[in-house]
Q: What sequence folds into this?
């Protein structure tokens, strides 16, 4: 329950040039506007009072708090409901790919998941309908790739079985492989070698296993 009492300040809507009702939360009940107190203007929608924003006096960054006095003007940053006359301007900085940073991080960040690939994987896409048999398309994923690179997959004996060209952007650093050879044949279980050529960024060689 609120108990009205007199205060020595007023709140105005300067756009409409009219006095506003408000709530003053004197949290320490010392009859002074000081640190921690809140001033909450009230607006009316269909004659129903609503709060939209508030002024709260915070702790100073350093030194003693300077409390408001006669003639002071408080500059406020607040949020409020949108109206038909509100205009918001948003400025953003486009994402970019930093070559020098990529050179330093490329070799250590690229990974294959899951590794090893065992029977089934949570990364796999499920069958398209409830009538489909099997567990869905088999896949592993090369992750943390640069925007453009060539992925070559070899057997342990050095036979090249698949070449994948990755062309993405800073938001797409993943390339799937369906575990098929270039001829569309299922690969055998075992250990494979991958070689990633990212041009000026460098090369990465690693291994992954396919297990029954």
A:
């Amino acid at each position: 329950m609120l108990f009205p009492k007199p205060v020595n300040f007023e709140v105005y809507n300067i756009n409409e040039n009219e006095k506003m009702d408000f709530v003053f939360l004197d949290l320490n009940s010392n009859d002074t506007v000081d640190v921690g107190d809140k001033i909450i203007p009230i607006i009316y929608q269909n004659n129903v009072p609503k709060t939209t924003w508030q002024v709260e006096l915070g702790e100073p960054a350093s030194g003693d708090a300077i409390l408001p006095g006669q003639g002071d003007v408080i500059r406020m940053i607040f949020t409020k409901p949108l109206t038909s006359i509100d205009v918001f301007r948003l400025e953003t900085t486009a994402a970019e790919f930093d070559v020098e940073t990529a050179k330093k991080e490329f070799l250590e960040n690229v990974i294959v998941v899951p590794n090893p690939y065992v029977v089934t994987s949570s990364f796999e896409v499920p069958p398209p309908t409830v009538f489909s048999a099997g567990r869905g398309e088999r896949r592993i994923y090369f992750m943390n790739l640069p925007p453009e690179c060539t992925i070559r997959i070899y057997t342990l004996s050095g036979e090249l079985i698949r070449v994948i060209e990755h062309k993405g952007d800073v938001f797409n650093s993943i390339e799937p492989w369906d575990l098929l050879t270039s001829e569309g044949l299922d690969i055998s279980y075992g250990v494979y070698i991958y070689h990633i050529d990212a041009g000026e960024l460098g090369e990465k060689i690693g291994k992954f296993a396919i297990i029954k």
User: Anything to note?
Assistant: The radius of gyration is 32 Å.
